[in-house]
Write a structure and sequence with these properties.
Length: 552
């Protein structure tokens, strides 16, 4: 509805958009995306064009006078939203209205891309009044139709408050078993499955007015944390081409319009020591553009990460990124306003010195404006914050989400054929994290357990011993784990129960299996949400078939 409103508003005004330093009105005889973009480009100053290259950040829910002046000075193409900008639908709507009002009344008067990291799971900015969506491995485990539905729900809820870009999904392939930093954000280790799930998810978001962003090119799955270091991925070229690049290739073939480039050194793609992909002409220009054929918007990962700031100044890195072929620079949540302004000035200075071709600026701006034009984002109409909760409409989405969780639960292996359980046929013990009482209720509604133990996330020696005692009272023991990587004592507790009578259900990270436990049967639930609890109990007891397909 929002995209339709944009288009109707544009048609009613004969596609009059304000552009140029004096705010001159442009009337489009042929309101095609090409004609809109060309008219804007002809009337934009260099300062305005360079502003479009930035995805800035602004602290706080209220737009201060300092923030207003910053937006007027930067005239950015995008703003990244973080939790400090608001979490409830009404607060976010108000914040975005304020940003867009300034942007559409300044300089070229071009509305913003408003972006957010709404991956779900460990990286989620919006929790108050928004649906708790499946994420990570769940997207790859569920049927593609369900992944597309998740994207539709995400798209509706984000666009309902004025957000038009989601910096998701993560398509990094998990190829390094001890990459604990990323494992709970990644979909798995099957590149083709990741690419297919990501494509379906992006398609769903696009249908409801939100642009998806594949990340982190060329792939973060075998690298350390770029927030704290400059990671190096040392795979050979064949491995990189067949594994790391595959999800991006699949996504591009399915119409991906934006890709985030990571701060990752890939010697197989560019042998320059210490040069991250985000600043590499070989990786952005040769690999992403020429080899993979991507013609959409290339965005850097946040430029406030240690991978950048420990090795470059941010202004220098900004110039290098644009020269490399990047279209938009994400300044990051911890870059001061003055530093963001310095980054813009550095690009302006480089152009004026002749160190950075103006044609490169124009190419990047053309891509950004074309992306906005194709999505009806060159016109903006304020959304009413009073109605934000109703537009998000999480109540309408709940039945769909419950069905999707049912389709996501994956029986990873069950050599003794314990599953599905038959209520009353065996004595079943339940061992679960005590912070999730609704989990016990969900399973108890189907079958009354013979014995129960609730444990703290970091189980004590007493709790570990109690697990064996509880299991002795039953024929089979259900042990629900939660992120063993963070709470390794859970592994000792699991291993205190005989493996041949244990069914382990990983509530959050599907990789609990690889952290020192050896159960006979292993189930991945992917999400520690009430809807997921109901779903996993239904699958365990055969009330719903195990549709999800996931392998570590």
């Amino acid at each position: 509805m929002r995209r339709l409103a944009f288009r109707l508003a544009s048609l009613a005004s004969l596609f009059v958009l304000l552009a140029g330093g004096q705010g001159a009105a442009i009337t489009y005889a042929n309101p095609s995306p090409d004609s809109q973009v060309n008219a804007l480009m002809q009337n934009m100053t260099l300062d305005q064009r360079v502003g479009q290259l930035f995805m800035v950040s602004l602290y706080g829910e209220e737009l201060s006078t300092t923030g207003q002046n910053f937006l007027r000075d930067m005239q950015p193409g995008a703003v990244a939203m973080f939790s400090y900008n608001g979490t409830s639908p009404q607060a976010i709507n108000q914040t975005i209205n304020a940003w867009q009002k300034v942007s559409t009344q300044t300089g070229a008067q071009i509305p913003l891309l408003v972006a957010i990291d709404q991956e779900g799971g460990t990286v989620i900015r919006l929790t108050d009044g928004f649906t708790q969506l499946p994420w990570g491995g769940a997207l790859a485990a569920m049927p593609s139709d369900d992944a597309q539905t998740v994207g539709k729900i995400a798209g509706q809820e984000l666009s309902a408050v004025g957000i038009n870009m989601n910096l998701a999904p993560v398509v990094d392939v998990r190829t390094l078993p001890d990459n604990f930093f990323m494992e709970r954000r990644m979909m798995g280790s099957d590149p083709a499955a990741i690419g297919a799930a990501a494509s379906a998810y992006i398609k769903g978001m696009r249908e409801n007015g939100v642009i998806g962003v594949l990340k982190h090119f060329p792939g973060h799955g075998a690298a350390g944390d770029s927030h704290t270091m400059l990671p190096v991925v040392n795979y050979d070229l064949d491995h990189v081409n067949t594994v790391e690049l595959t999800p991006f290739r699949v996504g591009i073939e399915n119409g991906a319009e934006a890709i985030m480039v990571g701060h990752l050194v890939y010697p197989a793609l560019d042998p320059t020591p210490g040069l991250p992909a985000s600043l590499s002409p070989k990786i952005v220009g040769d690999v992403l553009r020429k080899q993979l054929g991507f013609q959409g918007v290339a965005i850097t990962d946040a430029m406030d990460m240690a991978a950048i700031v420990d090795h470059f100044t941010r202004p220098v890195a900004a110039v290098m990124a644009i020269r490399a072929g990047i279209d938009m620079i994400a300044t990051g949540p911890h870059t001061p306003i003055a530093e963001q302004q310095a980054m813009k000035q550095a690009i302006l200075d480089a152009v004026q010195r002749g160190d950075l071709p103006e044609a490169r600026i124009n190419e990047a701006v053309q891509r950004i404006l074309m992306l906005k034009a194709k999505h009806g984002l060159l016109a903006w109409a304020a959304l009413n914050p009073v109605d934000a909760v109703q537009r998000v409409d999480i109540i309408a989405h709940q039945p769909m989400i419950e069905q999707i969780y049912l389709d996501t639960i994956s029986i990873v292996h069950d050599p003794l054929h314990y599953l599905p359980l038959t209520p009353g046929a065996r004595k079943v013990a339940v061992i679960y994290p005590g912070i999730f009482p609704s989990l016990l209720r969900s399973c108890s509604d189907i079958d009354t357990p013979a014995a129960v133990l609730s444990y703290t996330l970091a189980p004590t020696l007493t709790e570990q011993a109690a697990a064996r005692s509880v299991s002795q009272k039953a024929d089979v023991t259900l042990i629900f784990t939660y992120d063993i990587d963070d709470y390794p004592a859970q592994a000792y507790m699991v291993n205190n129960v005989p493996a041949n009578k244990t069914i382990v259900i990983a509530l959050q990270s599907p990789y609990d299996l690889q952290h020192g436990i050896q159960p006979s049967t292993y189930v991945a639930a992917f999400n520690a949400y009430p809807s997921a609890f109901k779903a996993v109990c239904a699958v365990l007891y055969g009330n719903h078939p195990a549709v999800g397909k996931w392998q570590p």
